[in-house]
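Contributing new records

If you add data, match the layout below exactly. Sequence lines come first and carry their own label; structure lines follow with theirs. Keep one chain per record. Anything else will be rejected by the validation script.
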Amino acid sequence: MKMPTTTQVDTNNPDDHACRICGRGVSDAATWWIHVVDGGAMIAPIFAPDDDDDPGDTGWHPIGSGCALSIPKTHRKRWRP
């Protein structure tokens, strides 16, 4: 799935636990996770294996509950890597 784009990026957010899509801070209770691949351009399905040898696999990133609504359930999960 192609990574969605948004214009609501908060570049002044000092929070390291920020939504990968919009940049806003997310609370632990509202956090979903996505597996970002292809150098940040794509979201892998949750069943796709992690590939530590692939430089384009950037790992698991948090997203907020609002942004999670735009991601199919097959591409997001509530889990902490």
